[in-house]
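W.,

You were right to be curious about this one. When I first looked at the sequence I had no strong expectations either way, so I just let the prediction run and decided to look at it fresh. Below is the sequence, 333 residues in total, followed by the output.
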Amino acid sequence: MQQQRKQAPRITRLWLLAGAVIVLVTTWAPPTFAQVPPRFYWKTLSGANAVPVIFMTMNGNANPIDPAHTVIRGANIEATVAPAGYARTFTLFDRAAMVAVLVPMGRISGEATIFGTTFRQSASGFGDPLVEFDVNVIGKKAIKNLPDLLRYEPGFSADLLVDVAVPLGEYDNDQPLNIGQNRWYGRVASPIVWQLGKWVPGKRTTLEFLPSLWLFGDNDDFVGHTMKTDPMVQVEGHLTRDFAKHVWGSLDGTWITGGKATIDGVAGDDLNNIGVGYTLGYQINDNLSATAGYMATVNASDPGDLQLDGFRFSVVFGWHPLIEGMKRLGGGE
């Protein structure tokens, strides 16, 4: 028992350094140009839980809360959003899996002209809940126990991911800017994590990609019009590196194409935009982590180009019953 107690803090630290605290930030800010944060799809012990609290401020010429990024020429739109959610990892057919839900809430305001009518408005409330399911298809088997966790290295892994947003958010059909989108939307994606070099805390390096195909239902009451949106491809990339055992950083990039919006038969333009940014992460303690990041479009010289930028800050509390039990055993030291 004495030996078991001495090992408990060490096991907890190794669990932490292996990335077992789920860094759940959105897919998970609501899916905007703010991106899914790097290191989100690292694997952890099955049965882990996480609760994120996120703060984002964004502005541009499209609704920053809408993943379709429909450009409104001359618009000046600002949004402050604070999504909150819950995620849980589990084992599915011996593979690592995760289910998560996120509900955005906040405020959006700005000026936009639609079919010759200029709207100066604001909206606040709850957005559309987003449900995510992710399962690993290439890579190591699910981490089911502490020995597996201590031996874990990601190597190369690829997942299958499905997101679905349910149109339950606040929506006013008399204005174009809303927290809710009044339509179903979602994506199919494949998170990829590629370990570069040795898996040593303080020196870990990864190259990560997230190719996604977004699909959108019709909004049949967009200020009295019907808006349809073509499928959109989005590819995210991150090069992450530890600066120390508890501090890491990432260079981030996003490319989106497609997503042409048609309103009452009048077609807009396809998107073809690139965004770049950075993320900094810090592990505060065994259960609490924080990230801060910035992202902005860079090829936005034309008024019809997508122009978005934003800051994101998140705090995530994660726990696992087994790890918490081990910590209690070591609490008397």
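Here's what jumped out at me. The chain has a mean pLDDT of 86. And, maybe more interesting for your project: Helices lie at 2-17, 146-151, 321-329.

Coffee later to discuss?

I.
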